[in-house]
Amino acid sequence: MKLPLSPPDFRTLLKNLDDNKYNKLFSSSLGPTDVEGRYLHWDKLRHLQPPKSWTVEEYWFVLKSARTYLYRKLPFTSKTGEQFQFCMTNGIHRDLLWIDQNAAGRIGMDKPVTNPHTRDTYLVGSLIEEAISSSQLEGASTTRNVAKEMLRQGRKPKDHSEQMIFNNYQAMQFIREYKEEKLTPAMILQLHRLLTEATLDDANKAGQYRDAGDDIHVVDASESVLLHTPPEALELPDRIERLCWFANDLDGKDFIHPVIRAIILHFMVGYDHPFIDGNGRTARALFYWSMANQQYWLMEFISISRIIKQAPAQYGKAYLYTETDDNDLTYFIIHQLEVIKKAINALHEHLERKAAELHDVEKKLDGSVLQGQLNHRQLAILRHALDHPNAIYNIKEHQAAHKITYQTARTDLLKLSDQFKILNKRKYGNLFVFVAPPDLGQTLADIEQIYQNGGS
Predict the structure, then answer these.
(1) What are the domain boundaries of the chain?
(2) 220 SS3 class
(3) Predicted structure pTM score
(4) What is the mean predicted confidence (pLDDT) over 149-178?
(5) Which top CATH class is 368-452?
């Protein structure tokens, strides 16, 4: 990734304008966005055709003038002492309204995420997805299927990548436990400790701020380009204290929308880089804490890291655009609002797809002796087994996947094998496993024939 080109100096542009040109530019109706409503950085705007008879520098001057008028100052400064700031554009207001309606309001009770019988199944799945994707963003290379198997079976991580994912899963559970508490530096340090356990070269650095001896820079190795040097280590305790104050100041005189507040927390941890490693994972986890703390309950069921991972360069650019244009956080805010919207839409698509799959399984059972006999967890196994011949299921993994007791998980699987004859029970060491028949469709037909013949 290359560093974006910094904009021309605003004061120099102003100084070079004559009165006639100045009056013409300021008679424009343009606001902080371009003619298509986009909040563009100079690095992109400079390649576009300016309107009217303007030069591209004059085009930038008009947009920057409108932004300067709208800027809201934040209680954070860059390493050189300038305040961070952002604009509330029409597009941002529109996106926030959409998120408020879709992530904080009431969703119809037919949705699995609001059904007390099924919500834990979806919650576990989302925590696993975020743990995997957030770790993969930072270099974990384990496949999704292997990682899911590790977390659901509760087995110990086998390598560094699996340890990262396991740690991230533990951290997301920690966030859920503390979502109603005020943020403290101790919570942030514990979160980092959970995220980096057994993954750092120096184990003593887990849950500790970097110190003056740690030479920390953000570098694009492929381009050999220095992208970011964070503030001095000596400043970190004060900067983290201010971060916590900002996170907890929900009733301050200067209202900041809750979603914007969470996004700013995300950015500032990434900017300050308080740790030698794990800063991105800590930043994204704190975003989740802030959203949950401010009652955006649906965020527990989505994965922003999965969306970010689809275009990681855009994530990095959002940071760089902010740092190279007067600490203007609007770029990062707009990027993250788009990520949140995509993640929410992905959740709804997932719910609709799962509902359709379960409906298809229920249709297969229409009029059969099994109709109405299977609970939603057993139907999910049946659906999976129909598509995955010879798949193996065990009690502990089923228990973890649905957040149920061991006895409930055992009963689910034993009924599928002993009572309904859908799965084959096998002894594996001291434990039982349950195997999907390779011809499960025919097995279902055979079960129906047996019952029709009086069970003989």
Answers:
(1) 10-70, 90-350, 368-452
(2) strand
(3) 0.90
(4) 93
(5) mainly alpha
